[in-house]
Amino acid sequence: MTTLHGQVALVTGAAGGIGRAICSALRDSGARLALADLDKAALDEAVADLGAGADSAAFDVDLTDDEQTTALPDRVRDHFGGLDVVVNNAGVRQIAPLLELSPADWRNTLDVDLTAPFVLSRAAIPGMLEQGRGKIVNIASMAGHLAFQNRAAYCAAKAGLIMLTKTITLEYGGRGIWCNAVAPGVVETPMTSAYFRSEQMAASIRANAPMERWAQPEEIARPVVFLSGSDSDYVNGTTLFVDGGWTAGKGY
Ligand SMILES: NC(=O)c1ccc[n+]([C@@H]2O[C@H](COP(=O)([O-])OP(=O)(O)OC[C@H]3O[C@@H](n4cnc5c(N)ncnc54)[C@H](O)[C@@H]3O)[C@@H](O)[C@H]2O)c1
């Protein structure tokens, strides 16, 4: 099992469904945890859920604010004395036909899902270079690889995040920085559960996912731990699709 004993991991969107599972899995592997989110109350709840034994702290941040996002790695270093892993997990999603998607909604999705990972990585990398090692894991989506209707901004943002992952590796992979992405398929979380339980979505999962089921957040979290630790030291710039086979191809 991957061990991250004593390493400091910063997880954005830590109060959400997948974020909480990532934090629990990182805690189980021995990491100290900086939980970052916009939702202060949910963040405090997430820290409490990790249990008294966990070395964790909450950082409230609005990732659409470049100044707050840029300051976050230093806040984490001031608290823990280091920063080894950044998981860009926070995300938002609009479901609307293109003609009903406002430019403001488009921008907000791009801001949270793509620009924030860029700004946060840009702020975290110099310290990682100084310490000679650092791992970034971006939570993309299979929607960054396959287009889905009514999700123009989300698909564009996640495709961009997959490319950001590759460019970070190209520029810094030779200097002790790892940047990989996890691209989940359908995962049951508060973001999705009502929608995914609709008959339309259940039929889509049966038709498209060879495993004919959605994922639980823990099934996304474990690959994130793998990409955060030294077991994945020869994996860089890649996107790991954790989608039950959805993107493997189309049946008939
Ligand atoms: N749930 C799925 O089926 C699924 C599938 C593929 C990819 N993903 C991706 O996984 C990630 C987590 O998704 P989830 O399902 O846990 O969603 P979620 O809504 O449960 O959690 C998202 C978290 O991001 C936080 N957030 C949103 N905007 C923010 C901002 N401006 N600043 C700081 N925090 C902000 C929210 O407060 C929330 O806690 C997202 O990037 C999502 O796109 C989810």
From TrEMBL:
Superkingdom of origin organism: Bacteria
InterPro entries named among the record's database cross-references: NAD(P)-bd_dom_sf (IPR036291), SDR_fam (IPR002347)
PANTHER family referenced in this protein's UniProt entry, alphabetically: SHORT-CHAIN DEHYDROGENASES/REDUCTASES FAMILY MEMBER
UniProt similarity note: Belongs to the short-chain dehydrogenases/reductases (SDR) family.
Identification of the protein by name: Gluconate 5-dehydrogenase
